[in-house]
Amino acid sequence: xxxxxxxxxxxxxxxxxxxxxxxxxxxxxxxxxxxxxxxxxxxxxxxxxxxxxxxxxxxxxxxxxxxxxxxxxxxxxxxxxxxxxxxxxxxxxxxxxxxxxxxxxxxxxxxxxxxxxxxxxxxxxxxxxxxxxxxxxxxxxxxxxxxxxxxxxxxxxxxxxxxxxxxxxxxxxxxxxxxxxxxxxxxxxxxxxxxxxxxxxxxxxxxxxxxxxxxxxxxxxxxxxxxxxxxxxxxxxxxxxxxxxxxxxxxxxxxxxxxxxxxxxxxxxxxxxxxxxxxxxxxxxxxxxxxxxxxxxxxxxxxxxxxxxxxxxxxxxxxxxxxxxxxxxxxxxxxxxxxxxxxxxxxxxxxxxxxxxxxxxxx
Length: 363
Ligand code: PMP
What we know:
By secondary structure, the chain is an alpha/beta fold. Helices cover 39% and strands 14% of the residues. Helix 1 (41-55) packs antiparallel against helix 8 (261-271), helix 3 crosses helix 4 and helix 5 (149-159) runs parallel beside helix 6. 4'-deoxy-4'-aminopyridoxal-5'-phosphate binds next to helix 3.
């Protein structure tokens, strides 16, 4: 549906659609890589109390620098990857990693500048580029969804991108990046390299985080989110780790008071429940591996996943399969290369419902 002629929108936006997965009200929703486990009563009570306290000061603007929250996030990342030593000056936070990445392109992209990534990957990247008037270049991943490092370096040499987006684990394929490949991209890239680690907590044992590379690479940005592992998608809190000078550059483009005091209080309260929330991550990793096995048991092809979702296929008419699952009350995502579908990992009973429906559909 195009924007009507009388609305004087930028011409390149006229035929665009707002981004988003279909929000269909069915019993089993496994389509947006949410955490199926909500916060516990204790965590919810702590959030409520923190928000109540913040509410008493809602006549005041929030802490513009979100100092306490950034300190808490730095401590969490240092615990996640002990090899890295971070403090608040090297961490930045915003309303979801979506906003983080838009800020990155506002600061490091823009007219006359280029951003590059490797498809299939997160489909919002080209939209951040469009919104910031940044030229967009998409390379290709290999058939096994890894990065062909020689081709990647050649493309970077040819395009000289100001920003490269790598995603590890990648959405929608679940593929983790080989750190040697990340290093090769960092060595070749003339500008900033963003490693989007939205799903990092779900990675399999032995898969390192790009946080380890921060000490040696000033142009590296590692982004994370509380939407997935921390079960805080509704709270909207994304963050990044980088050199303190890079963080300072981002502070130039952020809107004043972009993180509400309610958001800051909510995220800080959630951080206090890190142990409880990460216990659910372990359960989801087990369920993820079980899901991949069960899909393979049905004779389907499954991409190895380090995330909280699995890409599987291939279907001659994937839309028909997707629709047949919706008709049985199970919503998954029609995304990724043609013929593939993506299922987010839910609770064991949600996954049983998914498999019951899928077996009927492919019988
Ligand atoms: N990066 C990737 C790879 C994602 O899949 C998502 C959300 N699906 C995001 C970033 C954005 O997440 P949020 O804005 O909720 O932090």
